[in-house]
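Thread: "does anyone have the structure for this chain?"

Original post by V.I.:
We have the sequence but no experimental structure in hand. Need at least a predicted one for the grant figures.
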Amino acid sequence: MRTLKPLVGTLVVLASSCVMAQQASVPVIDRSDGKETAAPRSAPAPQQRAAMPPNQVAELLMTLDQLQEEVRFLRGRVEEQGHQMDKMRKNQRDRYRDLDRRITLLTQRLAEEPPKQSALPPVVPPALAGTEGAGTTPTAVPQLTDSQAYRQAFAKVRQREYTQALAAFAAFERDYPQSLLLANALYWTGEVHRAKPNPDQEAARQAYQRLLERFPQHAKAPEATYKLALTEAALGNRQQAAELMQQVVRQYPDQQSAQLARDFLSQN
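Reply from O.Q.:
Generated one for you, tokens below.
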């Protein structure tokens, strides 16, 4: 559009010059003696520019109109594209806010879950094993259920005590290998590794992989696959990330993770 404006200005000047030249060529009438006699036309100066034929003036004016119309058209296209970009930015912002709201609701719901009793028998510390029947009474050691241990670890996440949360989730994975909450613990282990001030994408990738290997049918599997794809992308493995995103769309088409995966594939 910027290159058209000087051309339009030049054509306007040329058209104005042509009109003035046409007006200058009209004969002058001398009425001083009562007779209409045409004054002799003076010979054009050697450097005077010849008047442009009327047909060329008409062509210039028509070209000028066409260029002005093209400028108006291009201005309209620029305004339309600006509107589309504003709309895309708004949609992206709304999508981010919706995702943040979902994560907040999920966090609150997990925090409000009633504690579940562990399916595992209480663990007896090795120091007390074998003392029964030896005439001594073992000291009672309080044993947390898997639900209580999980809630304590997750409380560290809500308080953003990432180092303590990772240590608590690692202890949970070690102490409750058969717990029904282990998949959740592995998922949040990956999330904490990605959310801490110095993200550890490799550690997050390993946590998501352990979850998917041990619990491929778990409700966390769609989100874990999507997050695994994000970690692969962050590590520079673009092909692996794209394949995982396609897997999410193919295996979980109705999940929110599938929509996020489609957005990722369309933008990358």
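V.I.: this helps a lot. The chain has two domains: 1-22+51-109, 152-268.
O.Q.: and Residues 1-22+51-109 form one domain.
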